[in-house]
Amino acid sequence: MNIGIHHVTAVVTSIIAATAMAQNAPAVDAPAAQPPVKVYLLAGQSNMEGKGAVNTLPWIGEDPQRGRLLATIQNRDGSWKEGDGVWIDYLGRRGKLTVGYGSTGSPHGPLIGPEYGFGMTLGAATDEPVLLVKAAWGGKDIAKDFRGPTLGGDDGPGEFYRRTVEHYKSTIAELDQRFPELAGRRTELAGIVWFQGWNDMVNKEKTAAYTANLAQMIRDLRTDLNAPDCPVVIGELGVDGDRAKGGMLVFRAAQAAVTEQPDLRANVKFVRTAEYYDRIAHELYEQDVWKGPSKERFYRIASDRPYHYLGSGKTQFLMGKAFGDAMLEMHSMPPAQP
209 is in which domain, residue-wise? Predict the structure, then answer.
């Protein structure tokens, strides 16, 4: 009988000790209690694909106004930094964000689009993991290719609208397999960046319909991705910078007018990009330096035609940073009043 009592006493003492240890142990968040992965959808056509040559990025350092930014993206050994807690999936090319997630097949080496400046800006501003889902194809319009289902009628959504939604949803559904570092985490669509326009700008009828088409596409994307209040950044078609005229200015006005829609005013922001267009590279292009005996002067700072922002990595990075700054500004805004 006494042996039984001693045994029970020992068991009770062990339970009390274990309970005390558990109470004093540091709290560990369950996976469900962790903050969600902030997901951003980046969509558009060739300039969202990205035509900025990585080997032109050091040109940022020679900018008297923005040269300090080079140190935020380049290591001392000349290599390029990864985003702090930022990942990307660009139609099957995936991993930690760094340079090289632009278009492929360039004779000028790896390219970037706005994703690099955008992701680096978001990564530096938040402790939460960030995932960029990029869907972009060159030579596409919003009148047909990216047309939302509401305007599609019996024809349904445009092929590249559909592919954008499918890419986003498949990335989220396969998050654990594609990004083991993020396995088990919840996700939240935290923003959309739309950077497109050339194929609509060159057609007067498409330009006239652009405001309505883009506004409805934004509404449709929010519905299809179950994110009714998701903030949206619209990147200006800034080719030719502040010297643009004619149809380009008409088109820019059509882009900006989307933010005047009553239901979009609070959480859709139009971001100017004309100021980042590289006028020095443009002048070299106009002088045909890019194909002359001194062409290295051009290819040190640029790599493509004007409609691709001259293939300037500097321009692509600065535009992406501007998109990121605008997104962060919207995140800090109070909720819109009904």
Answer: 32-331
- Is residue 243 assigned to a domain? yes
In our burial notation (b when 16+ CB lie closer than 10 A, e otherwise), range 187-222 reads: bebbbbbbbbbbbbbeeeebbebbbebbbbbbbbbb
- For residue 276 the two structure tokens come to 């980042």
What CATH number is attached to the domain comprising 171? 3.40.50.1110
Rounded distance between C-alpha atoms, residue 252 and residue 204, angstroms: 13
What local confidence, expressed as pLDDT, does residue 34 receive? 87
Structure tokens at 198: 């050339």
Strands 52-53 and 111-112: antiparallel
pLDDT in tens, 79-111: 999 999 999 999 999 999 999 999 999 999 999
Q: Is residue 24 part of a domain?
A: no
- Residue for token digits 């194929």? 199
What is the number of structural domains in the chain? Answer: 1
Q: Do the domain assignments include residue 47? A: yes
Q: How is residue 240 annotated by DSSP?
A: T
Calculate mean pLDDT across residues 210-238. 98
What's CA 9's distance to the chain center, in Å?
Answer: 62
Are 102 and 111 spatial neighbours (Cβ–Cβ below 8 Å)? yes
Q: How many CB atoms lie within 10 A of CB 246?
A: 7
Domain assignment present for residue 297? The answer is yes
Count Cα neighbours of 44 within 13 Å in the Cβ-side half-sphere: 25
